[in-house]
Amino acid sequence: MYPEPARHAPHVGLVEVHQPTPIRPVITQHAAPMVPVQPGHVPAVASIVLPDGRVVTGYAMSPAQPEPLAIKPPVSRAAVNVALGGVGFLAVCGGLLLLTTFITALTALITQLITLAAVIFGGWIAVQVLGSRGHGGGTTVNIRKAVIKRNHFHS
Q1: Cα(first)–Cα(last) distance of the chain, in Å?
Q2: Backbone angles phi, psi at 47, to 5 degrees
Q3: pLDDT by residue (tens digit) across 64-114?
Q4: What is the pLDDT of residue 99?
Q5: Angle at CA 53, nearest 5°, toward 52 and 55?
Q6: How far is it, in rounded angstroms, from Cα 32 to Cα 34?
Q7: How far apart are CA 22 and CA 134, in angstroms?
Q8: Which position has the higher pLDDT, 15 or 118?
């Protein structure tokens, strides 16, 4: 299914080898260190001649000063964090209490509006059913055709 990998002979060619060239030490005639004059804002560069004749050049370093001890605050950071966390928790609880109060008041308002609508609509229905549509109320009797017998009306 797959072709066999082809085997090639290793490539033999010319290889160039580069050798580092050593730097010869600079030999100076005087043994005193050379200190060039620099402007005030740039640090001075110092050169020192070692006993074997090599010259070392670099910036002069002032001795390392230990960092001053940090002043401890009168209240620990943990106590401050706990206090801030407590204030945040109380703010969240207060907000939730106000939210639930608002939701409760809104629910009561909606309930009262629904009750008011039901009372108004129920009153309108009652007026329509029980109201007088040409009736004087109760049973209508045509007096001219009625026969009165023992205080009863018969038609």
Answers
A1: 116
A2: -120, 135
A3: 788 888 777 788 888 889 999 999 999 999 999 999 999 999 999 999 999
A4: 96
A5: 120
A6: 6
A7: 131
A8: 118
Q: Which two tokens stand for residue 29?
A: 């005639």
Question: For residue 154, which phi and psi values (nearest 5 degrees)?
Answer: -130, 140
Six-digit token string for 21: 């060239």
CA distances from 95 to 27, 62, 84, 153 (A): 82, 58, 16, 75
Neighbouring residues of 148: CB distance < 8 A, sequence distance ≥ 6? 154
Sign of CA dihedral 106, 109, 115, 120: negative
User: Each residue of 111-144: pLDDT tens digit?
Assistant: 999 999 999 999 888 888 877 665 555 555 556 6
Could you write out the three-class secondary structure of the chain? CCCCCCCCCCCCCCCCCCCCCCCCCCCCCCCCCECCCCCCCCCCEEEEECCCCCEEEEECCCCCCCCCCCCCCCCCHHHHHHHHHHHHHHHHHHHHHHHHHHHHHHHHHHHHHHHHHHHHHHHHHHHHHHCCCCCCCCCCCCCCCCEEECCEEEC
**Residue type at position 150:** R
| Tokens standing for residue 13 | 């060619």
